[in-house]
Write a structure and sequence with these properties.
The complex is a heterodimer of chains A (about 325) and B (about 230). Chain A is an all-alpha fold. In chain A, about 75% of the residues lie in helices and about 5% in strands. With about 230 residues, chain B is α/β, with parallel strands linked by helices. Classes of the chains: A mainly alpha (about 325), B alpha/beta (about 230).
């Protein structure tokens, strides 16, 4: 293993170990926050595969997050499935929706791709509201505590919930770390850098981009399904445009095309809003100013800054 | 052997190539010489499937590559170094070469052979491509194309804008690639490059090959080439 590879494994393993250690020492409030942050960071990891590594800016990822969440939730509510099969249903829904959207949206590029993905997500959101008899529309529905027991583990228990969120996040993080070192991940980066050049070298760019959309959508759906199950609520808010913008901000702040960027960005933004809202009712103004400053002084994101200044080997 | 048989191609309504015919044999350098807008780069793009053909066909050792989608053409054995190099600037030299190597699943020996032509790249493996000098970028672009182990190499003005020492290094690598048996189709504007490298020269004008000449004849009397290029 190269020096960079060993250091990278040590760093990412260290981050996961730190998150595990925090489980034992954090006060209840921050413990709950961090569980939520890890699930949302998993969503951002999914987004990063498409935006950070492939260079495709989607404004419709809430569709995938909601596909996972509703795929899981509706399977429990209407088909009477247990949490395990319901999670699988959420993943399958994310995979199917991302494949369908990818096949159509990838016929466009650039701004048109952004708009098409946004429209897909809006159509999904409106469909959730329209089929309110099944989805309970804007109101959403709760998954009862008694239903959230997976393999004998009560996921509504804060400790179990934290560990389940950590397991999901670790899986996503290590999978990304593995992916970026594989030929598939390297070709995605080549496509991001110069799509035409990648095609001239003999790569089927469309197939690779479709693969990236499906992988990104499925990871996002896994996060959505886990969010619904761990926090016991499935709602249309998670399909709104706001939830398509969030992962973009998290990834931009943390560092697009870096493995740790999604966690750093999600953590930073979550606590920025949390802390500033405790100080002033104009907390979005504070958050906005800080975001502008970070964007100005670290345009490559916080992990990107680390990579540029300190650790060139950072994946 | 690469054959272009009566091909027509262009961009939308603008027809650039008209009934263009030529062939490039293994182990030779055929230079396409012509003024700006004559259709040299479009010929290369047509071979790579980046410009659709309106007529004719292109074959490589009997295989109709003009019927393949663009991404299958390099896998059929054609490497292309476009004008302007088009590297993956954010990636390192090693990563650029790896992407080339993976494209056709070439063995590591192919990379070694490419690096033997450009030993300077061995010292730059960890450096980002965009930080290389112009000459080194050209070397990397050629080495990456050679990682495909191509039967035919298309080079579009490979020495444009380079300093003399780099130009000589690139020319030496082109000659060595020919010696290894590759067919090379070269686009050049510089008369000295055309005369020093080419085995045959195809004079191209208005999208047609006017004549194909042995380079030796033009070396003895290069006024015809000068007239054709408008020098």
């Amino acid at each position: 293993m190269s020096g960079g590879g060993a250091r990278s494994l040590a760093l990412h393993g260290g981050v996961l170990a730190l998150l595990l250690a925090l489980h034992f020492v954090l006060p209840a409030y921050h413990h709950g926050n961090l569980a939520r942050i890890m699930v949302l960071a998993s969503y951002a990891i999914g987004y990063n595969i498409l935006f950070g590594y492939t260079g495709l800016l989607s404004l419709g990822h809430a569709l995938f997050f909601a596909a996972g969440m509703y795929g899981m939730g509706l399977a429990m509510r209407h088909a009477g499935l247990g949490p395990g099969p319901a999670l699988a249903a959420g993943l399958a829904a994310g995979l199917a929706v991302s494949a369908a959207m990818g096949l159509l949206a990838l016929r466009t590029a650039g701004v048109a791709f952004m708009i098409v993905t946004l429209m897909f997500a809006q159509a999904g959101y409106l469909a959730l509201l329209y089929f309110g008899a099944w989805t309970r529309g804007d109101e959403g529905f709760v998954i009862q505590q008694a239903e959230r027991i997976l393999w004998g583990i009560d996921l509504s228990d804060p400790g179990n919930r934290y560990l389940a969120a950590l397991a999901l996040f670790a899986l996503c993080l290590l999978a990304t770390l593995w992916l970026v070192e594989r030929p598939f991940g390297k070709v995605l980066v080549a496509i991001r850098e110069n799509e035409e050049r990648a095609r001239m070298l003999g790569y089927n760019v469309f197939a690779y981009k479709l693969g990236a959309v499906i992988l990104s959508g499925t990871v996002s759906a896994a996060a959505g399904a886990a969010y619904g199950l761990l926090f016991g609520y499935v709602g249309a808010t998670f399909a709104s445009v706001q939830y398509s913008i969030f992962p973009l901000l998290w990834v931009l702040l943390g560092g697009a095309g870096t493995v740790l960027g999604p966690l750093i960005g999600t953590l930073f933004m979550f606590y920025l809003i949390d802390l500033s809202s405790g100080v002033t009712s104009a907390y979005m103004l504070v958050a906005g100013v800080v975001l502008v400053l970070v964007t100005l002084f670290a345009p490559q994101g916080l992990a990107g800054l680390l990579r540029a200044r300190l650790w060139r080997w950072l994946p | 052997m690469l054959r272009l048989e009566g091909i027509g191609a262009g961009y939308g309504a603008a027809q650039v190539l008209r009934d263009l015919t030529l062939k490039v044999r293994p182990g030779e350098i055929l230079c396409l010489a012509g003024r700006n807008g004559a259709g040299k780069t479009t010929t290369m793009k047509a071979i790579m499937g980046l410009v659709p053909l309106s007529a004719g066909r292109i074959t490589l050792d009997g295989v109709a590559i003009s019927e393949l989608p663009a991404h299958r053409v390099p896998k059929a054995g054609i490497g292309y170094v476009p004008q302007g190099r088009r590297l993956f600037g954010e990636l390192t030299v090693a990563q650029n070469l790896e992407i080339g190597l993976m494209a056709r699943g070439s063995p590591l020996a192919v990379l070694d052979a490419a690096l033997d032509l450009f030993p300077r790249l061995r010292e730059r493996m960890g450096q980002r491509a965009q930080t290389l000098s112009g000459g080194e970028q050209q070397m990397l672009a050629m080495a990456r194309a050679l990682c495909l182990d191509p039967a035919v190499l298309l080079l579009d003005e490979p020495t444009e804008g380079l300093q003399p020492t780099m130009i000589e290094a690139i020319r030496a690598a082109i000659r060595e690639t020919r010696a290894r048996g590759a067919a090379i189709l070269l686009v050049e504007q510089r008369i000295d490059a055309v005369l020093s490298l080419a085995d045959r020269i195809a004079l191209i004008e208005n999208g047609r090959v006017l004549d194909t000449l042995e380079a030796e004849a033009l070396r003895r009397d290069h006024r015809r080439l000068e007239r054709h290029l408008g020098v």
